[in-house]
Amino acid sequence: MELCTQTVPADHEVKIRRRFGSHHPTVWGDHFLAYVDLPGANEGEEKQHEDLKQEVKKILVMAPSKSLEKLELINTLQCLGVAYHFEREIEEALSYMHNCYDEYWMSDLHDIAVCFRLFRQQGYCVSCDAFRKFTDNQGNFKKELVNYVCGILSLYEAAQFRVHGEQILDEALNFTITQLKLSLPKLSNSQLAQQITNALKFPIKDGIVRVETRKYISFYQQNQNHNKVLLNFAKLDFNILQRLHKKELADITGWWKELEIVKALPYVRDRWNIDAAEHLPSYMKIIYRGLLDMKKIVKSYFQEAKWYHGKDVPRMEQSIKNGISPSGYLFLATNSWLGMGKVATKDAFDWIASEPPILVASSIIARLLNDLLSHEEEQKRGDATSSVECYMNDYGVKKEEAHMKIRNKIENYWKDLNDEYFKVDVAIIPSVLLMRIINLTRVVEFIYKDEDAYPFSRNSMKDVISEILVDPII
């Protein structure tokens, strides 16, 4: 079949001056094509993996139902990145504990904090009042806690899952950050010090699962009390999954090269004619028209162009609202549900297409983090003003204060995201779909942690990709 691609020729050549970013060439190129024939797990590895999996399952099931032992085991499985093998068992265990939950059941700070975090990660919005027993008459956290570093670290991780109105968790976060930083010089270069340093930069709430899994396996191995069965299973599972990801990347890279988009579409400035759709087969018309109907994103880009050429600085809220669509984040979140099978129902897609609050909060976090780390580079090449410049203009403050205030806004949008996670009816929108939105937010937190690692990926980004997609665990 010959495809009709009717275009509208321009009457005269228009010179367009395009501003380019100073982005370096791709670091990886065709590297992953080398894995196109990479074999999966062999028969021996598959048997070893299944045997270890059954051993771990037995350990999990045999642990007393309402016990600290089971809570710690679930926490370890999640941190080791293997909890996805035992989702039903973990849900049943946490559901049982939640149904008979009593905040006076435990008295230790570490135990209460881990229990609280696991419940909230599972979607149970338990009360934070249990932490009041660790405060004095003035509402401050007791001084005797400062030497209990493990407990403070667990409280720090738990406080990350706060929602609006939970002042004690706001105070807990400030208290724990201060105390953890003060504790580091006393811990030298111990395994606990490494964990604290990593947690201060990437708390569990923000961490990309596979990245943090690789780190935690190393931390867990250094722990003299580690369970060898759990450790061996986590290592083997990581390597098998890594090989699968390598093969998938090889397939995707090969597919992209075979498309030859650059060669096939050299005239990207040609104007497509909507009438050309009438010459297409019916099954292609909807795709063609959809490409021409990206009204929201085009409108937002046009608004940015007007601000830029008019040298206008919009109000910050205007900038944020307009900036959600151009980020492409809404499309990315929706597309992440493709291939999820029956769990991604039409009702689920209708829900995400309505731009629910959890998706809006996630999108704004992405936009603000991008602005914080890329606005200076964008200003050099003459892009439209970012939320940083907008805030400075709105309130007459310097860049440093604008950065601090925007960081506070990001924390508030995380509270929105946490709150909406608890509110969504999982009978309609299963948690596995919601986690796609949260995981995308985690990716953005990682990319914009120290630098804009998306265009400038030669540094930390390259090392992380090597660790999770290239180098197996020995």
Automatic annotation (TrEMBL):
Residues 294-416 form the Terpene synthase metal-binding domain. Keywords: Metal-binding. It comes from the Eukaryota. Gene3D superfamilies: Farnesyl Diphosphate Synthase, Terpene synthase, N-terminal domain. InterPro entries: Isoprenoid_synthase_dom_sf, Terpene_cyclase_plant_C1, Terpene_synth_N, Terpene_synth_N_sf, Terpene_synthase-like, Terpene_synthase_metal-bd, Terpenoid_cyclase/PrenylTrfase. One of its GO terms (biological process) is diterpenoid biosynthetic process. Residues 27-200 form the Terpene synthase N-terminal domain. GO terms for molecular function: magnesium ion binding; terpene synthase activity. CDD domains: Terpene_cyclase_plant_C1 (cd00684). Pfam families: Terpene_synth, Terpene_synth_C. This is Sesquiterpene synthase.
